[in-house]
Amino acid sequence: MTYYHARTVEMPFQEAVERTIASLQAEGFGVLSDIDVAATLKKKIGVDFRPYRILGACNPQMAHRALQAEDKIGTMLPCNVIVQGLAPELAEIAAVDPVASMQAVQNPGLADTAGKVRAMLMKAIDGVSP
């Protein structure tokens, strides 16, 4: 089992970011954090890095269900979604697989919620199109 679901799209990086956020919103996710990894690495250690953003996505209903089943699950929230530029007109979008990450918790009460979140994230990632 892989720990993520990914898709490559033919579009500029910034467009991929915008379409990913819109697709996440269409599936009920809000983006709570947006980390520009390239800008951070340049500022902190002076290195150049490809365009790379980490979006912290959260669906409030699913987060609430997970927190009710396991109060420490907040250490794994929100779900991270990355968008990275591979070439001028090519980007990759990838999201964590909540089923894979929740297996480490070993709480059967999380399985259903993790499966639903996985399906929602996959639909959001697969829904990003030019």
Round the Cα radius of gyration to an integer and report it.
Answer: 15 Å
Order of helices and strands: EHEHEHEEHH
Q: What's the N-to-C terminus distance?
A: 29 Å
Mean pLDDT: 95
Number of helices: 5
Structural class call reads alpha+beta
Basic shape:
globular
Strand order of the largest sheet: 1-5-4-3-2
How can the largest sheet be summarized?
5 strands, antiparallel
Classify the helix fraction into a percent range.
40-55%
Oligomeric state of the chains in view: single chain
Strand content: 25-35%
Number of distinct beta strands: 5
Segments where pLDDT lies below 50 for 5+ residues? none
Walk me through the structure.
The model has no long low-confidence stretch (mean pLDDT 95). With 130 residues, this protein is α+β, with helices and mostly antiparallel strands. It has helices at 13-26, 37-45, 60-69, 98-102, 111-126; strands at residues 4-9, 30-36, 52-58, 79-87, 90-96. The chain is 42% helix and 28% strand. It contains 5 helices and 5 strands; from the N terminus they run E-H-E-H-E-H-E-E-H-H. The chain has a 5-stranded antiparallel sheet with strand order 1-5-4-3-2.
In short:
Helices cover 42% and strands 28% of the residues. It is built from 5 helices and 5 strands; from the N terminus they run E-H-E-H-E-H-E-E-H-H.
Supply database-style keywords.
single chain; 130 residues; alpha+beta; 5 helices; 42% helix; globular
